[in-house]
Amino acid sequence: MKTLLVLASFLLLAAALPTPKSFLHGAQVFRVVPKTEGQIHYLSGLIKSDHYDFWTEPRAIGKPVDIMAKAFHIPQLKSTLLKLGLKYEILVSNVAQQVEALHMANEKARAKGTKAMDWTSYHTYDEITEWLDSLATDYPSLCTVEDVGTSYEGRTMKLLKLGTGPATNPGIFIDGGIHAREWISPATVTYIINEFVQNSDTYADILAGVNFYIMPSINPDGYAYTWSNDRLWRKTRSETGTPGCRGADPNRNWGFHWMEAGASSNPCSDIFAGSVEFSEVEMQNVRDQILKYQDTLVAYLTFHSYSQLWMYPWGYTTDLPSDWQELDSLAQDAVSALTGVHGTSYDIGSSTNILYAAAGGSDDWAKGVGNVKYSYTIELRDTGFWGFQLPPEQIIPTGEETFEALKVVANFFLTPR
Ligand code: ARG
Ligand code: ZN
After folding, report:
1. What is the ipTM of this complex?
2. Ligand 1 center to 329 CA (angstroms)
3. Which of 30, 124, 165, 326 has the most CB atoms around its CB within 10 Å?
4. pLDDT tops 70 at residue 2
């Protein structure tokens, strides 16, 4: 009888507490393929509303747009799409279940893993950070790790310097995880670091000829929140002044043509640009590191997911930088090496031309203000079958192919000896 009472009160308690994922129950992802510029324009306007979550942005005629709607907003989305004359396909019929499936797969892989850090499962912010520290201890001749600031919620942000040559060597700055839910990004950036440190003899030329400045997870609070509360969180976690609406889109927050296109001033929007440029302390921290190494930096690479795109500036305008052909040509070489590994195909172009204009991105700032010539935003796997819930088995293949692309970029800057 006593056990029954305990059980009953437990069940009551469990029912009363909202489960962290409950708000995803009934959420679905709709895929539409725009056929006119008008439809693209209308869809881009919809991003600014806070009703829908665009998993991929409108790009061009014939390119799919994936829109998540919570249960409550589904009827409205359907009628909007109908009015627009857009047929939809249900890409994910049960988002909560997809999130749960990835969670289970990741927990299973983590349980099997024998090391604190590996690439058979996704890792938490603290695991990544501790691993970075361990590298500095284990490979002192290859890398150093520095604390470069604190996040809004007080997490330490770290930068790893990798290279055996002088500080004057050409520098490549790499970051990951700017958008919290894009888990494959920090996983791939850490894969790259690991590949270099484990095989430093093989890559001796690269390590002697260029320096890497790497920050694998530049939105720590957002990333932690995707582990604890909402797997699909994109933004930072700062208070906005609007109750119930936290965070700014860190990739709309950079101070170059800030708020000029594809960004929102509504704190509840997923593309909220922040109250002012560089309102987000995490982006200030990354900016300051880029400025610190600015004189040597030749390339800036920022990893996102998903869509399989290799993009260069500008993102705020349809205009192209005057040297776009050089950026395009290196991107072509990098992507052909990438595709050579597992056959994964990528689209290449300026971000405005393959996506819709969006100002305040780190790539535009790195080139426009930071003066880093080869600035790229890379959208990793996949094209939407798994989307943000990319299974852990794909971390290694994604790492392998991306590493080949990075080698092409690094070799391009090797000073001829
Ligand atoms: N999906 C990325 C984002 O929305 C693409 C960024 C491309 N760069 C840009 N400056 N718009 O942040
Ligand atoms: Zn992103």
Report:
1. 0.98
2. 20
3. 30
4. no
**Cα-to-centroid distance, 182 and ligand 2 (Å):** 6
pTM higher than the cut 0.90: yes
Residue 355 predicted with pLDDT over 60:
yes
> What are the backbone angles phi and psi of residue 181, rounded to the nearest 5°?
-80, -5
Residues 257-297 pLDDT 10s? 999 999 999 999 999 999 999 999 999 999 999 999 999 99
Q: Is the CB of 368 under 6 A from ligand 1?
A: no
Residue 178 Cα, ligand 2 centroid: separation in angstroms?
7
Q: Can you give the length of the chain in residues?
A: 417
Sheet containing strand 52-54, edge to edge, reads: 52-54, 65-69, 28-32, 88-92
C-beta of 352 in contact with ligand 1 (< 6 A): no
379 is catalytic: yes
β-strand partners of 89: 31
- Partners of residue 300 on adjacent β-strands: 173, 375
The mean pLDDT value of the chain amounts to: 94
Q: Is residue 224 classed as helix, strand or coil in its secondary structure?
A: helix
Q: Whose CA is nearest to atom 9 of ligand 1?
A: 315
Torsions phi, psi for 32 (to 5 deg): -125, 150
Q: Which tokens go with 403? A: 């590493």
pLDDT at 356: 85
Q: CB–CB of 267/243 below 8 Å? A: no
311 within ligand 1 shell (Cβ under 6 A)? yes
Catalytic residue, chosen from 379, 400, 401, 404, is 379
User: DSSP assignment of 70-118, as one string?
Assistant: -GGGHHHHHHHHHHHT--EEEEES-HHHHHHHHHHHHHHHHHH--SSS-
DSSP 156-190: EEEEEEE-SS-TTS-EEEEEE-SSTT-THHHHHHH
Q: For 289-316, write each residue's pLDDT tens digit.
A: 999 999 999 999 999 999 999 999 999 9
